[in-house]
Amino acid sequence: MGSIEKYYSQKSGLTYSERGFTPFQFSSRQMQVNTTQLGGLIPDNPISDLMNESMSWYEMWINPERIAISRQMIQKKTHTAGSVVTYHFRPELETMRVSGVCGWIAINPQSEEKPRSLGFKSPPSAKEFYKIWGSTADTAKNNSPRVFLKRLRDMAESPMYFVDLKGVEHYNTKYIKIFTKQYPYGIVCEGYYVKFDVPESGDDVQTINYEFEFVIERKVSISSLQRMAGMWGNAKSRSALGRSIRSLPGLGT
Predict the structure, then answer these.
(1) Positive or negative CA dihedral for 107, 113, 117, 118?
(2) Residue 248 has what pLDDT?
(3) pTM of whole model > 0.70?
(4) Residues lower than pLDDT 70 in the chain
(5) Which of 64, 145, 189, 224 has a Cα at 20 to 30 A from 207?
């Protein structure tokens, strides 16, 4: 018998992650310094960078319902006696508008007892560090839609400059790691929030809505390391690199 030729109804495209779209993740420079550099007492180094990817990102429960990235083109028109002269300037910074639902408000806990990213005082306490970051701490239980929204809003409202425990001032860049149809492999948006609203109405009393605007100063491609799950749901990651990082003392279960 002759060979049977196979036909396909569509062309094959790029393969996507079997997890689907990864949850959005949020971080800030201040959070990373407080988390893995003992409030600035430890210099930035490759180990702290590895720890940041595993420990310094808030992960969404439910990805946004709507996201729009727009850029305004800047022109200026001047009227002269004989014509209209148009001056073209570089485009404005991109603005990302995001809205959605955090989740069911009945999920506990309703409040956060020990903020994980703010566990360092002056002077820093090794005992407090282990209590918050030790391998016995189950951080996934200290999270809920209400707690996540408070963490995200506090991050959005935090000042754009902060001073570490050494007295050095830093620019508090905010980071959003997004995975969308436009960016299926993800990008990190660096910038700052200009609006953060939590609208409520009597039509929906079971979920928490939110919407915010974020000015993107820079977009960076995501590395293989940064594709791992965030700090609030990463124990079951299949990434070999993720498993190796979490096998370090105090970095996971």
Answers:
(1) positive
(2) 39
(3) yes
(4) 1-21, 113-141, 224-253
(5) 189
Contact 190/173 with Cβ under 8 angstroms? yes
Phi-psi region at 252: left, alpha or beta (left = phi > 0; alpha = psi -120 to 50): left
Cα–Cα dist 235/244, whole Å: 12
Q: Residue ranges per domain, the chain? A: 25-72+87-244
Rg of the Cα atoms in the chain: 22
Question: Tokens 């022109």 — which residue?
Answer: 75
Residue 11 pairs in a beta bridge with: none
Half-sphere exposure of 200 (CA within 13 A, CB side): 5
Q: Tell me, what's the pLDDT at 83?
A: 92
Q: Which residues are bridge partners to 233 per DSSP? A: none
pLDDT tens digit sequence for 62-93: 889 999 999 989 889 999 998 999 999 888 99
Q: Report the distance separating Cα 99 and Cα 78, nearest Å.
A: 38
**Beta-bridge partners for 58:** 26
